[in-house]
Write a structure and sequence with these properties.
The chain is an alpha+beta fold. About 20% of the residues lie in helices and about 40% in strands. The termini are far apart. About 5% of the residues have low confidence.
Length: about 375
């Protein structure tokens, strides 16, 4: 046999092997695709929970949640987390999700891990949060027990026809925990601009924490954009006021410029005479350790002279901002402003002082107990 003939036979054999391999892979892919397709009628029979979810284009899908290895039992005593009573059904298994586009006859099995291993019926602790505007998808919340005050919520959205998990990141993009605290019942809400708020009662400070995230569909993330505490006697959602981030930015800007926050016409170093026509009538006037103070509702202006010495040449040396109503804490300040230049216990005053150098100015925060609520912010040079 010639060398040419041998090569021709070898080439034909190789092509046959290659074609067989391609057919085998195509068949495997076809079988796998068929396994992922489940008729809607079958999903309705085997699913333990269903949710309606819209993507960013407002296309509606049904999320079916089921477990092929599901087992059932009966609740023997009250479940304080879920609110279920003795006699309610408990189902356990490896739960998965299938997605059905509106009008479709088949659902597609999703590969996403739900982290869900049991369902007690009737149930209200897994739920959807409806979007407020086009371009923003609905969010599915799968939750688990956190504490007696809140659940831990894990969010999912539909993107490109697939159910996908969202990750929580801080304002710098650093990953946070997989779950986030959310109060039961009304612990999550969505606002305009793809903002999502989480609220829960914080036992450490005896207040409600309200944290705002920005949803980024492309990055599949919820990025922290603001924080805020609400007094326990006002548990409803805050609908007005400034969050911690904007408030601290305003204090930082005022310290950098040496002005009274919200009143740029009043500056450190100005004489008593130059501000007499600008200042409103003070609620009270008193002497402090270093000089006289004009005290107003939200702040006090300090001079370099005592009341009996105060004259037209006396100068403004400090702004004291009464910060208690803003529910600020040291950790919150450090979160948004970074590490302070100084942090120590002022034994003479019996308080903690946390000081930031802002340009040529200084911004300090004062609180009585370690990690306690900040009652005063000070701007000076």
């Amino acid at each position: 046999m010639s060398h040419y003939s041998r090569n021709k036979i070898w080439l034909c054999a190789f092509l046959m092997m290659l074609l067989t391999g391609v057919c085998t892979f195509m068949l495997a892919d076809s079988v796998q695709a068929q396994e992922k397709r489940i008729p809607v009628e079958e999903l309705k029979k085997i699913s333990r929970m269903t949710f309606t979810l819209r993507d960013a284009y407002q296309t509606s899908y049904t999320v079916f949640i089921f477990a092929k290895d599901e087992k059932s039992s009966t609740l023997a005593e009250e479940d304080y987390w879920t609110g279920n009573q003795p006699g309610d059904k408990i189902y356990t298994g490896t739960y998965k999700a299938a997605l059905v586009k509106k009008g479709a006859k088949y659902g597609t099995l999703q590969s996403v891990q739900l982290g869900l291993h049991s369902v007690t019926l009737p149930q209200t602790w897994h739920y959807t949060v409806r979007s407020k505007a086009k371009g923003t998808p609905d969010i599915l919340m799968i939750t688990e027990w956190g504490t007696s005050n809140f659940n831990l919520a894990k969010p999912f959205i539909i993107r490109s026809g697939t159910l996908m998990p969202l990750k929580f990141v801080d304002h710098k993009g650093n990953k946070l925990d997989e779950y986030y605290p959310a109060g039961r019942g009304d612990g999550v809400r969505m606002l305009s601009g793809a903002r999502v708020q989480f609220k829960f009662y914080n036992n450490a400070v005896f207040k409600y924490a309200v944290n705002t995230f920005k949803l980024n569909v492309n990055q599949l993330e919820l990025r922290l954009t603001d924080t805020r505490y609400v007094d326990a006697d006002h548990p409803s959602w805050p609908n007005s006021g400034v969050g911690d981030r904007a408030y601290l930015d305003s204090l930082k800007s005022a310290a950098q410029k040496g002005i009274l926050p919200g009143q740029p016409g009043i500056k450190l170093g100005m004489t008593h005479k130059s501000v007499q026509n600008t200042l409103k009538k003070a609620r009270s006037r008193e002497n402090g350790e270093w000089g006289a103070y004009y005290v107003y509702r939200h702040y006090a202006i300090g001079f370099d002279s005592y009341l009996h010495e105060l004259n037209s040449n006396s100068r403004i040396m400090v702004f004291n901002i009464f910060a208690e109503e803003h529910n600020l804490y040291p950790d919150t300040v450090i979160w948004w402003l970074g590490k302070p230049n100084q942090l120590y216990f002022n034994e003479a005053e019996g308080v903690y002082d946390m000081i930031y150098n802002i340009g040529t100015g200084k911004l300090s925060f004062h609180y009585e107990e370690e990690g306690g609520q900040i009652y005063l912010a000070t701007i000076y040079r």
